Amino acid sequence: MKRLRIEHATGFTYQGEVGASYNEARMLPSSTDSQFVLTSQLDIDPATHVNQFVDYFGTRVASFDVLARHESLSITARSLVEVRPRPLELFASTWDRLAREAERLVSTVEMLTQSPRTAPHAEVAEIATAIAAQHDDPGHAAVAIATAIGEAVAYVPGVTEVHSTAAEAWVTRKGVCQDITHITIGALRHVGIPARYVSGYLHPNANAEIGVAVKGESHAWVEWFTGAWQGFDATNGAEIGDRHVLVGRGRDYGDVPPLRGVYAGPHKGHVHVQVTITREA
User: Do residues 109 and 42 both lie within one domain?
Assistant: First the structure.
């Protein structure tokens, strides 16, 4: 188990004054069976009233607006979280049993439907179909598919954009964790395995020193259902461990962006992001 302190600072700097902005932040983790939130807070400048709620998928949301004229908006999320490893548990199942179980719950049915972000490239669909045909157990097939996608796509920042789709990223075989996760989700759904997008943070150093702050970033991984929900980090080809801090879940990135908003004014805004992670125990 690790205790991680996370500081996620983001916001906008505008090229002049804007009249008002309306925003939603999904930057604070929740306690689950594998992580416990000791403290968490959200600081906003300019100061404003914040309405907090849990969305349909179980993610903590801070909704707020800034009605006074302003030239910048800063949001800083600070959390202290104890995290335990979440190793894979491959439950014995069959494809027929999975199909029956997946149809019983809305939570699994809705994670079978492709979105524009996850719809797989024809080559990805062929790869997923071929791997699934080699496994009688969908759980083992899911691991093999996620591993194959992670090995096929190189982690290269700057090649894709936040709105890039899985099919677009596959063409270049390059992208970031968001792209690799979308490709994996599309492949799993194509063969009938419910899959969902997970957003969070990852400490970059497996052997992190206690008390040393390091540059981090938002991270994404996949969870699939083959009798129970299981997580896997396809980008790193790894199980979900005590360096992964979960923030939100959804059908794709569109359900869990760290910050979403609109503003009134003619000026363009520049987004800034900085994540710092410190192991405290």
Answer: no
